[in-house]
Every structure is written in structure tokens, then in C-alpha cells.
Predict the 3D structure of the following.
Amino acid sequence: DHQLLFRMLPLYQEVKNPAKMIETLQAIIELDSNPTRKARYLLTLGQLFRDFENDPDRAVEYFDQALDLDPEKLDVFERIAKLLTTQKNWRGLARAYKRMIERLKNREQPDLKFKLCHDVGLIYRDRLNEPLKAIEFFKGASMIRPEDVQEKQILGELYLLTDQVDLAIEQQEEMLQVDADLLELLLHELEDGLVTREHRTEGDAESELLPVLLADTVAAGLPTSRVEEFRRLVGVVRHDTGFVAVERSGVSQRARGR
């Protein structure tokens, strides 16, 4: 009897018998068809397994079932994330994030979806060392917020890490399109890197402009080994007339050797 079982719960709580509380709640859940109440019972079960049975895996299982019934309970998801993080169960944490993203698929909650995609991307990048999976979720975050420069920067770095240079350059170009200040910084850094060097061949001296792109001045995050890709990125054209023209999106600067 549903009502009888429900009346027994406070008695078991009073005598501090969590095992009986768990048994009773499981029976109530089998009988109750109301999703809101079932979600509440499942949440209580998860708490009992977490706090009294020292069984975080079962706790996560019941918290997860509660979220399936009521995805709006973000505090329950936070409990799942905290348990899995404490266990350093990074793969389980990534699964939990992906399940939460799936629950929100048909809901209009862009800010929450963005955060979930970004955070699971960080898990794959920093904890699981799976850059290709990380790219998948950072791309999802970038699609939600195409104006977010940070996501494009992260994607560019991951594309470089996975030897997808063309895609890295594409991301950096998109980043420059949405961040005019960064474009000006890149142009400034490039101009500062132009120096005059003397080359002596058979007693003859000639001067030419050489772009010196040091690691600490390459704001786009490209290593010095990617100089040619960086030149393509900022639109550097080497001219035989003794100067370098920098052109990008209508911006033109000329820097002569110092």
C-alpha cells in the first residue's frame, strides 16, 4: 500500500535506519506514477546512498534518474558533477555532461547549453587528453556563441595540436573578424618584429626586411615553426621593393627596416 509505505518513512528516519528507508523508497517509486514525486524520491535515494551507504556510484545513478524526470533541477546535476570530480572519474563526468546536453536538446536555454559544451570540452582536453572529442564540444559552444573569441582561440589551438593547420588558420581569421582590437595587436606585433639584417656574400652587403616572429609576440598562438601559416593569417606579403605590406580587412600598414 502506497500510503502505508509513505507513513513508514519518517519512522525509519527517526530510528536512523537508512537501509529500511532505501527499501521503502524503492517500493514507493515502483508504485508512484507521478514524475515530479518520483524525481523527489529518487533524489532522496541518491542522498541516502551518498551520505549513509558510502556508495557514490549508486548515488550518481539515482541522481541521474531524477534528472531524467526533471531536467530543470540543476542542483542535482551539480551533485553528480561534484561526486564524479571527487572520484576523479573524468570519463563518467564527461558522460554526465553529455547526458545533460541531450536532455536540453529541445529546450531554449542557450547560456546553459554553452556552459555545458564548454565544460565538457575542457574535460576532454585537460583530463582525458582527447583533443578530437574536445574539438567536437568546443565547436558546439562556438555555434551557440559565434562571437565568443575565447572558443575560437581554443579551437585554433586544438586544430594545431591535431595537425589541422588549415582549420586552425580559419579559426584565427574568424577570431580576427570578431575582435578588431586583436587584429590591431597582431599588426602592431608584426611591425615591431621587422628588423634590418645585413647579409655579406663575397664582400657585398645587402639589407633586407625579415619578419622576426618570436614566441612571446605571436598573439595568435602559432608556434614559430608555423611562420608561413602565420604569414598567411595576417596577410604578410614580401615585396622585392624593400618593404612589407600588411593587409587585412581593408587595413594596410607599411613598415620599413630600422
In short: Confidence is low (pLDDT under 50) at residues 193-258.
